[in-house]
Amino acid sequence: NFRKFSSRSDVWSYGVTMWEAFSYGQKPYKKMKGPEVIAFIEQGKRMECPLECPPEMYTL
């Protein structure tokens, strides 16, 4: 999955950027290393919704 850019990877990047914004700059996946993040995502898991994030925005 590395070095493959697509609309899907763009959407994921946008989602992570929005997560960072709504969490006031917290580090995403802060307790995980690269391979753990990849496994987490491939298992269909997602980061929890930041407290200040509207549910409508999180579901995007």
Automatic annotation (TrEMBL):
Is rRNA processing among this UniProt entry's keywords? no
Q: Where is the Protein kinase domain?
A: 1-60
What is any Pfam family matched here?
Answer: PK_Tyr_Ser-Thr
Q: What class of enzyme is it?
A: transferase
State the InterPro entries in the record: Kinase-like_dom_sf (IPR011009), Non-receptor_tyrosine_kinases (IPR050198), Prot_kinase_dom (IPR000719), Ser-Thr/Tyr_kinase_cat_dom (IPR001245)
Gene Ontology molecular functions = ATP binding; non-membrane spanning protein tyrosine kinase activity
Q: Which domain of life is it from?
A: Eukaryota
- In short, the EC number is 2.7.10.2
Write out the entry's keywords from A to Z.
ATP-binding, Nucleotide-binding, Transferase
Tell me what this protein is called: 70 kDa zeta-associated protein
This protein's species is Canis lupus familiaris
Q: Taxonomically, what lineage is the organism?
A: Eukaryota, Metazoa, Chordata, Craniata, Vertebrata
